[in-house]
Amino acid sequence: PKKEVADLGCGDTSLLWMLKFHKCLELLVGVDTNEEKLRRKEYKLSPLVGDYLKPRERTLTVTLYHGSAVERDSRLLGFDLITCIELIEHLDSEDLATFPKVVFGFLSPAMVVISTPNSEFNPLFPAVTLRDSDHRFEWNRMQFQTWALDVANLYNYSVEFTGVGEPPAGAENVGYCTQIGIFRKNMAKAAELCVPEQHGEHVYKVVFTATYPSLQQEKYRQYAVVNEVISQVYDMRRDLLERLKLQDDRDFADTSADAGTSEAPCQCFQPVLTRFSANMEKTPKPFCVGNVFYVPLERLFSLPKVKHLCINIEMLKTLIADTVMLNSDGSAVMVDIHDEDN
């Protein structure tokens, strides 16, 4: 299933930047009221050269919206996770009352993570009342947990509490520096109370969007398949040449003084060819005829990475046909046995 995560009040997009490295995600959304800051941080979320050289397994789209956590936008409905990191303390009483209605009632994600300062920790800071001049309030643990439990009960979520920032020795009673509530939707009860989805409310303004290359996109899948096939073919050829060299060395050591006649080039491959031919129908293996090295597509298709990228051998043939040389019936890749430049 598609994995979608939104960060409300995403600020400098640091959390989104960390999340984009998780390969299971397909949609990352950031929402913030500061449009200028979002535009300054676009570069952190843009695909880099490495993203094209090694595409993701799943396509990832990253979108930044200018908007507020207390506005309803149907493009964020039903996400797997919504995070609100150090957000709620910036809301006035009216917006704080609206916040759960929007996030839990309207957007209704499978999980919500909310963090907020723990005011009990503040005396450990020098001369601190509120940690930020924009904070409207800072709750102690009882206040936050009471609010969170009320919200969870009202919207059919469970909630557990944790935090980050251990207190120093001797001050353990103040709790974590930042308190966190992890809300999980009660899926069974949510199914019973299911109401028709509300669509069409698009109040956020798109500030930035980018789609990362992935193996689900044909051109990147083709690139990955071709690279893997070429790499494997040359590895197999190198292995064959090394075995032949060892055999030649042994033959040379055993050669009598009167056995100096030269042989046709293809004959030096005869032992390998004979060995491969015996098992060809059962398990197709690389072989050579004259100075041409062949790797059956059936053999290549059996490689885990190739099989993962291709549905069947026909798909494999289609993806590599324009890049590598195939034999006349298209059943094998062929390369010159001595062409080391490739």
Automatic annotation (TrEMBL):
- Keyword Magnesium annotated: yes
GO biological processes: piRNA processing; RNA methylation; siRNA processing
Gene Ontology MF, one: RNA binding
Reactions catalysed, semicolon-separated, are: small RNA 3'-end nucleotide + S-adenosyl-L-methionine = small RNA 3'-end 2'-O-methylnucleotide + S-adenosyl-L-homocysteine + H(+)
Q: Which UniProt keywords apply?
A: Magnesium, Metal-binding, Methyltransferase, RNA-binding, RNA-mediated gene silencing, S-adenosyl-L-methionine, Transferase
Catalytic activity, EC:
2.1.1.386
**UniProt xrefs under Gene3D superfamilies:** Vaccinia Virus protein VP39
A single GO cellular-component term on record: nucleus
> What cofactor requirement does the entry state?
Mg(2+)
Q: Does the keyword Transferase apply?
A: yes
Under the heading InterPro entries, the entry gives: Hen1, SAM-dependent_MTases_sf
Return the similarity comment.
Answer: Belongs to the methyltransferase superfamily. HEN1 family.
What this chain does, per the entry, is described as: Methyltransferase that adds a 2'-O-methyl group at the 3'-end of piRNAs, a class of 24 to 30 nucleotide RNAs that are generated by a Dicer-independent mechanism and are primarily derived from transposons and other repeated sequence elements. This probably protects the 3'-end of piRNAs from uridylation activity and subsequent degradation. Stabilization of piRNAs is essential for gametogenesis.
- Listed name of the protein: Small RNA 2'-O-methyltransferase
Which species is this record about? Loxodonta africana (African elephant)
